[in-house]
Design goal:
TIM Barrel; 11 helices; globular
Length: about 280
């Protein structure tokens, strides 16, 4: 288990990185190699992508990954970098609030000091989002478990109103207020791409706002000017990396050429990154 004092220091450091107007920028990782490359690029923290992690472990995204497998991967990743790590735990890897508390204890044992917990529902559910009161109970359980452990875990409540076409600004703000009241520290609203909506969310959310970025999104500098406190790339880095594999494999097996392999990392450079004293 991670040293309690080191975990506390990382948690406080991670919490301090969420500043409206000076956003924490997170190119999300899915394994040890991507985490070390992101850290080496200058990231102040590393956050996992549940989609990328699921694919790395041979499972589809969307609450299909088992808690132990997911957090085993998070533990390896957290042990491989020096910066704070936040774990995307999807819906909490548990059917109820008590199970979410168990997940949070396992997150801390893995060495992570932040979580993303989402309100989306997946296979077999008739509604796209979990009811507000139920999700607030799950967030409260996460908060209580972390507080009982003496670690100020940063609880980032993801609201999928826009991503799942389940509501607009008003519905998002209603959920944000309930989740912050239950103990969340920040609000993550993926699927928002226009400046006017971002402005409304920044003004209406009583806490740090996190948005998802990728091709077509507003530049980080513009998001900073709007008052955003956290910017996440989500699964986009993993998608881009896997796209290279597919292009290169098809080119090699089809045309027998290698152009897709140009601009690859130097073997010695990547080997040194993994061989350096940590």
């Amino acid at each position: 288990m991670t040293n309690q004092h080191a975990l506390l220091d990382r948690a406080l450091a991670f919490r301090a990185l969420h500043v409206p107007g000076r956003p924490l920028v997170l190119p999300n990782a899915w394994d040890v190699a991507s985490a070390r490359l992101i850290e080496d690029a200058g990231a102040a923290a590393v956050a996992t992508t549940s989609a990328g992690l699921s694919w790395e472990l041979g499972t589809a995204d969307g609450d299909r990954l088992e808690r132990d497998r997911a957090l085993g991967a998070v533990a390896a990743l957290a042990a491989a970098v020096r910066v704070p790590v936040s774990a995307d735990i999807e819906s909490g890897y548990a059917p109820d609030a008590a199970g979410v508390a168990d997940t949070v204890r396992a997150v801390l044992a893995a060495g992570a000091v932040g979580i993303n917990i989402e309100d989306a529902l997946y296979a077999g559910e008739t509604e796209p989002l979990r009811p507000v009161a139920e999700q607030a109970e799950r967030i409260a359980a996460a908060r209580e478990a972390a507080d009982a452990a003496g670690v100020p875990l940063f609880v980032n409540a993801r609201i999928d109103t826009f991503l799942r076409s389940a509501g607009g600004v008003d519905a998002t703000l209603e959920r944000a207020a309930a989740f912050l009241g239950a103990g969340a520290d920040g609000i993550f609203v993926p699927g928002v791409v226009d400046s006017e909506t971002v402005k409304l969310l920044v003004a209406g959310v009583d806490g740090p706002l996190n948005v998802l970025v990728g091709p077509g999104a507003l530049p980080v500098a513009e998001l900073a000017g709007l008052g955003v406190a956290r910017v996440s790339a989500g699964s986009t880095l993993a998608l881009a990396a896997h796209a290279v594999v597919r292009r290169a494999a098809r080119e090699l097996l089809g045309a027998g050429m290698y152009m897709a392999l140009a601009d690859g990392l130097d073997h010695g450079e990547l080997n040194a990154l993994h061989g350096a004293a940590r």
